[in-house]
Design a protein that fits this description.
Blueprint: E1 28-34, H1 53-60, E2 63-65, E3 68-69, H2 75-84, H3 88-91, H4 108-114, E4 118-123, H5 130-134, E5 138-141, H6 170-183, E6 191-196, H7 208-211, H8 232-241, H9 248-279, E7 286-292, H10 312-315, E8 316-317, E9 319-322, E10 331-333, E11 337-338, H11 342-349, H12 364-367, E12 376-383, H13 388-393, H14 400-408, E13 413-420, E14 423-428, E15 434-437, H15 455-468
Parallel strand pairs: 1-6, 1-7, 2-10, 3-11, 4-5, 4-6
Antiparallel strand pairs: 2-9, 3-8, 7-9, 12-13, 13-14, 14-15
């Protein structure tokens, strides 16, 4: 086992309940998660702002799902859904205000450990208990760097500069630890390594050499209406966050930092992981899965960051599968998939039996170019209403975004989304319905929920939503 000793790092050798040995032809799994990356932050999708050469290469050698949907717009619920295959209202966390993290049992990590895989987890957690992490063979849990804390030194629109050298920043360290773990795997052994990067989560950050690649003046702001055109609650969030004070130039500068964070904190690190995988001789027998937990408004509706909303900017995320000889190369699939589908898909791809205890649907057939099993996508979330008086009362004490999120992250109300084909319906307990026609990879622009022309579509989706989650 590798010796993994660094600050903020835990190395544990504990394999308490190995119940099987992986089959001789069973593949390794490298599971890469980033935080808050929109699906269209990939360069190969034509985004003029994106710089993702390594991810583009990964997709060109594997399968890119162009219609991947998260089950929730924030970290904790989405990550729990990935590792359990359950929707948020089934695993119990509807916002980041959660009661507890997960034990290892009944999760994807627990499953692969029971199959005899060496298991490691490196980077951001926000999913598992400390006791669960201690049962893995190697862990290196890191969130954001200390200089990226939300304090007065972070500029109003959430950029952070780097007083530390790159090799001491967490993206580099997480990659180093993962490569050391992968390199320690001997012939005949199998590994399941999770590498979880904090970027491009705010405070948006990248070293100067990456910022220098991108000009704020060349950033293209998405052409979407203001939040008022979609829903009153989204408009209240926009006003509460003070987004009306952001000029176009400020948004472009924020976008510059965001895409530089993707470039360095995700794309460059994936390139290093893939090079190390090849050096260690594991590239011919490893399944690589790359996803983000949720997205970012990043210019949509003259907004940035996230919130408890079910718009495409926050739910539509990248998903790339790579496994030479197992999947076709360069496939861009339009099959609908969700992050809940990762667990059952990996179980089937590694020779396991179909899971019966998850909401996820295996995408194995879709990866092979067959008929997708999933037809409908869902998301569930909680939210709290904003109180303008309380927001004002906290002035001078807490950062504005903290006051907004502290209220919105309360699970006092519920909201849910259903998408089938080109139609999407959002329901909530305190606002009217939202119905959108979304061909291709488009974003919401016009709420047609009250249009008589689309009444039948709305009734059909409402009926299906009611069967999925009864409030």
């Amino acid at each position: 086992m590798p010796t993994l000793k660094r600050r903020d790092f835990i190395a544990v050798a504990a394999m308490p309940f190995v119940q099987a040995a992986p089959a001789a032809d069973a593949p390794n799994v490298l599971f890469v998660i980033c935080d808050q990356m929109r699906a269209d932050a990939l360069g190969l999708l034509g985004n003029p702002n994106a710089r993702t050469p390594h991810l583009d290469k990964l997709a060109s050698e594997g399968v890119l799902f162009e219609r991947c949907t998260s089950a929730n717009p924030v970290c904790v619920p989405s990550r729990k859904s990935m590792f359990t295959g359950l929707y948020p209202h089934h695993h119990g966390s509807l916002t980041n205000e959660h009661d507890s993290f997960l034990p290892l049992r009944d999760t994807m990590l627990g499953y692969f450990q029971k199959q005899g895989y060496r298991t490691g987890y490196f980077g951001k957690n926000h999913t598992f208990t400390k006791e669960a992490m201690a049962q893995l063979e190697a862990t290196g849990i890191r969130d954001r760097e200390k200089f990226r804390a939300y304090d007065p030194d972070v500029t109003p629109w959430w950029h952070a500069s780097a007083p530390w050298p790159e090799e001491k920043c967490h993206p580099h360290l997480n990659t180093e630890d993962a490569l050391r773990f992968i390199g320690s795997v001997k012939p005949g052994e199998r590994f399941f390594a999770t590498v979880s990067y904090f970027d491009p989560h705010p405070p948006y950050f990248a070293p100067p050499r990456h910022l220098a690649k991108i000009s704020a003046d060349k950033m293209v702001i998405p052409k979407t209406p203001l939040a008022d055109a979609l829903s009153p609650r989204l408009a209240e969030h926009s006003r509460g966050m003070g987004f009306e004070r952001m000029t176009d130039q400020v948004i472009r500068e924020t976008m510059r930092h965001y895409h530089a964070a993707v470039d360095w904190g995700v794309d460059e690190q994936v390139g290093r992981l893939m090079a190390g995988l090849r050096r260690a001789g594991h590239d011919r027998n490893t399944i690589v899965v790359m996803v983000s937990d949720h997205g970012d408004f990043m210019g949509n509706y003259h907004m940035v960051r996230k919130g408890m909303f079910l718009q495409e900017a926050l739910l539509h995320v990248p998903m790339i599968w790579w496994a030479p000889g197992r999947f076709s190369r360069g496939v861009r699939s339009t099959a609908p998939v969700q992050l809940t589908d990762i667990y059952p898909t990996l179980v089937e791809l590694t020779g396991g039996k179909a899971l019966e205890s998850t909401d996820g649907v295996s995408a194995k057939a879709a990866l092979a170019g067959g008929e997708p099993r999933r037809k409908t996508m869902y998301a569930s979330a909680g939210y709290g209403e904003l109180d303008a008086a309380k927001l004002k009362a906290g002035e001078g004490q807490d950062a504005l975004h903290k006051r907004v999120f502290d209220q919105e992250m309360q699970e006092t109300h519920r909201t849910a989304m259903i998408r089938e084909g080109e139609w999407k319906l959002i329901l909530s307990e305190t606002r009217g319905p939202e119905l959108y026609h979304l061909p291709g990879r488009s974003h919401e622009t016009v709420n047609v929920a009250e249009s008589p022309q689309h009444a039948a579509v709305r009734r059909d989706l409402e009926k299906k939503m009611g069967k999925w989650w009864t409030w």
